Amino acid sequence: MSDNFDVKLEKKSYLPEYSYRDNSWIGEYEPAYQRFLDDPERFWSEIAHELEWMQPWDNVMEWEHPYAKWFTNAKLNITCNCLDRHVNGDKRNKVALMWRGEDELHERVLTYRQLHAQVMRFANALKGLGVKKGDAVCLYMPFVPEHVVAILACARIGAVHSIVYGGFGADALNSRIRDANAKVVITADVSYRRGKTIMLKSIVDEAVTHAPCVEKVVVLKRTDLNIELMPEKEVDFYEIMASADPVCEPEVMDAEDPLFILYTSGTTGKPKGIVHTCGGYMVGTYYTTKYVFDMKDSDVHWCTADPGWITGHSYIVYGPLSTGATVLISETVPDYPDPGIWWKTIEDIGVTIFYTAPTSIRMFMKYGEEWPEKYNLDSLRILGSVGEPLNPEAFEWYYRKIGKAKCPIIDTWWQTETGMHMLATLVGDKMKPGFTGKPIPGVIADVVDKDGNPCAPGIGGLLVIKAPWPSMMRTIHNDDERYRQYWNTVGNYYTAGDLAVKDEDGYIMVIGRSDDVIIVAGHNLGTAEVESALVSQEAVAEAAVIGKPDPVKGQSVKAFVTLCVGYKPSDALKNDLIYNVRMSLGPIAMPSEIEFVDSLPKTRSGKIMRRVLKAKEMGLDPGDISTLED
Ligand code: WTA
């Protein structure tokens, strides 16, 4: 497989002066990678030494397959690195967070000092509700500064946050609350999307009804709707903050104490609660923000993800704040009130590093270049991409129309499970559209066959990571067996669940998932989760869901459904089924197509063969169907 579009520009000709990497730190790719290979522990320890610890580590890493411990016995609190270090250093009055609502008249700015103060107060407020180190707190919030305050407040007192994306429905929220055993849920009365008001609180009301673990619900009031709070259970965000002490000493955390749980879709109906720990995650996100994004003091960083996804955790909150960056957060969607809103935001604020998903870029391509052309995007110096393959057409458009052929495109491959960037093309390195890039220094990755043997260049295989890294997940909450499967499926390697291919230079092209996960507009959906939402409806006997290529969203959901006796296919029934999936899982899981069928292809042991449905749908050869029942 060759690179069909190679940006054949010498780096000096396309990188503006100021985007050169500061070589005094880790340095250029090749020598940095070699230094890592020569002595991995030294490599990571040098990076970790840039951060503040309450007590140093005994060992950088201890590995007993498939369990890793990083920075053993070290003590820290990640918020000291994200906040105190800057407040006590030279960034007290530097802007930490800049927020823009859907309406540009709504803007808020928090300096590091202000953010620190709010986090400490809210941390004390949580303590006042009885939250202690190790307790789980669920956040289901709109993207406002208080969301970031709540995240860091949990980390301050050692509570384990579990953020649930505000676009999920009540059932999805309920199952995540119960799995994490959350004691407190933090939410808001409403969120805004495309000018519409979404009643978040009523979704929470429904979700906590069958979640006895929840003792308190904290409600941020954004409107004067005057939602009544139940006095014994519900409290007002700012009221509990107003009566809290202003100073909250950071909880002393062991490097291996959990920092958060984040649910991601898997191949069963039950989402996986990925567990990340304090020390390794801090080092991994700090390192990659600084190295992969080449973060400088003067940068204004805008990652368009939501905190409900790992990208938001790592590259809105922990990574950028630990480097002391100025972070823009915004509640906007790409095309409301018009498709120029993001470009206008970049011009107004002077964003320098912009990190988004291919699905947004493809949506912008559809609207046309006249939208970005209306605005001055000269402040940009680095463009990032994450979430799914950045196809060469989208790459070229992003590079030319947004970056004006002067900004490197940093495509980053990683996962909720990996915590940090794993593969990327670094600033100054040759870009190959379609290819994510190489494993970054610190990461040993390869493309292998199912027995673990490396595939020759051009031959597709499974993407694996061959050695532990600091921000790797430590387990899956309540399901360690599922964690072990990641490391026991192909040799002794970590299997990512992605198909990939390598070229002669070691660049890796990620093709897509090798399992039953569908990525719709950058959001992971497990086929089983959507199927069980369909089957839970009276009319449905069985359901099978596949991902179908979509020019903008990457993939869309198509469902095949068999009906129970007494029900007949109709458009009204289709709409009902779609509506019910929306209510239970949220709009991101809505099938865009439903086909009623008489039966589903199954193996003799009764497993639905989605592969066969997909091949048929796409007019392709279904491959080996010897196990097909009929
Ligand atoms: C896919 C998001 C191609 C991949 C950070 C992975 C990508 C899954 C890329 C993880 C990329 C992510 N190129 N595919 N640059 N980045 N993916 O857990 O299939 O939401 O396994 O983490 O997204 O999605 P997750």
From TrEMBL:
Its EC number is 6.2.1.1. It is an enzyme of class 6 (ligase). GO terms for cellular component: cytosol. Gene3D superfamilies: 3.30.300.30, N-terminal domain of ligase-like. Keywords: ATP-binding, Ligase, Nucleotide-binding. One of its GO terms (biological process) is acetyl-CoA biosynthetic process from acetate. One of its GO terms (molecular function) is 3-hydroxypropionyl-CoA synthetase activity. CDD domains: ACS (cd05966). Residues 29-82 form the Acetyl-coenzyme A synthetase N-terminal domain. Residues 529-607 form the AMP-binding enzyme C-terminal domain. Residues 85-474 form the AMP-dependent synthetase/ligase domain. Pfam families: ACAS_N, AMP-binding, AMP-binding_C. PANTHER family: ACETYL-COENZYME A SYNTHETASE, ACETYL-COENZYME A SYNTHETASE 1. Belongs to the ATP-dependent AMP-binding enzyme family. This is Acetate--CoA ligase. It comes from Methanoplanus endosymbiosus.
